[in-house]
Design brief:
The protein is an alpha/beta fold. The chain has a single domain, classed as D-Maltodextrin-Binding Protein, domain 2 (3-Layer(aba) Sandwich). It contains 13 helices and ten strands.
Length: about 325
């Protein structure tokens, strides 16, 4: 009997040891899993679990099940969750320099964006150091594409079309851009924008075109104006204490997995946007391309946005803005 008890106890110990071997890495995502950011997290999950031989168990909580986009920085920084995906601009309160990506028409080409987000660049290094002061650190960057405007009943071709209208924004600097154009910015989380458009809370939408597809925004808006006035970047952030508690070997495996996921989404972005535009058109949306003259009208009203950024960020902001402008 004692032998049987000892064997049973040993078995329980082994089971317990196995259960404890896997360290959970919960990741909060505001977008649906079918979105390209959700699909990218699945790539990351597979890479991590394969490379760590199951030592890290990645769990993805999509569609803002646990936290809304705006809540992710605090949740990750406090250790309430191990990791989360947030729009970079959600860190503007603690790290104002992040909004260099939302300076109107600054990073308006793939080459400029790739230079800014490259490992070791002044832009990326500066931002990651500032974000790290929040208790969370950037593991990798997720490309989301250029910002576009959404409307119903006609396009938003010039600032005159924005004047006096309420526009959804997802960051302070984007709000400054709307204000400079004569509109009234309203901060609305990505997971809440569908209802905002449906209820008429705002007249104009602002998002990446891939979000139009993943959230089926053609059901509540009928026109896309291709402004590409900002580059939208999301970041996967991990809690610093949790990260530091991992072995250097496990950290290395996770970083390798992050690099694979980061490059795969960046390389696929052009096709992702093309597919999203095609889906929008197939579902009845009108896609409007602006003339050079119309784009110049938008740029002409944008200087106050740059002035506000430099005032909020000081010398550090000037350094990062100069680097991004090259």
């Amino acid at each position: 009997m004692l032998k049987k008890i000892a064997v049973a106890a040993l078995g329980l110990t082994l089971v317990a040891g196995t259960a404890q071997a896997a360290d959970k890495m919960r990741i909060s995502l505001q977008l649906p899993l079918k979105s390209h950011l959700g699909q990218n997290l699945l790539v990351f999950e597979k890479e991590v679990e394969t490379r760590t031989n199951g030592a890290i168990d990645v769990e993805i909580y999509d569609s803002a099940q646990l936290y809304k986009d705006k809540e992710v920085p605090a949740a990750v920084g406090s250790g309430a969750i191990e990791a989360g995906v947030a729009s970079l601009t959600r860190y503007v309160g603690d790290a104002p320099v992040v909004d260099v990506f939302y300076m109107p028409f600054l990073l308006n080409s793939e080459a400029k964006v790739r230079a800014a987000v490259a490992e070791g660049s002044v832009v990326r290094t500066t931002i990651e150091k500032e974000v790290a002061k929040t208790g969370g650190q950037i593991l990798y960057w997720q490309a989301y594409g250029g910002a576009v405007l959404l409307s119903k009943g006609g396009p938003i071709r010039t600032p005159a079309d924005m004047k006096g209208k309420k526009a959804r924004v997802f960051g302070k600097t984007l709000g400054d851009f709307v204000t400079a154009a004569g509109g009234a910015p309203t901060l609305i989380s990505g997971s809440e924008q569908y209802l905002a458009y449906q209820r008429g809370t705002v007249d104009i939408g602002m998002t990446g075109v891939s979000g139009v597809k993943s959230r089926k925004l053609w059901e509540v808006m009928d026109t896309i104006t291709v402004t590409n006035h900002a580059d939208i970047e999301f970041v996967v952030v991990v809690n610093t204490d949790w990260w530091n508690g991992l072995s250097s070997e496990i950290q290395g495996h996770i970083r390798a997995a992050a690099n694979v996921a980061q490059e795969s989404v960046r390389d696929a972005m052009t096709q992702i946007e093309a597919d999203a535009y095609a889906a929008a058109k197939a579902n009845g949306m009108t896609v409007v391309e602006l003339t050079d003259q119309e784009l110049e009208a938008w740029k002409a009203v944008s200087q106050p946005v740059y002035d506000s950024y430099l005032q909020a960020t000081g010398d550090l902001g000037k350094t990062i803005l100069d680097a991004a402008s090259q």
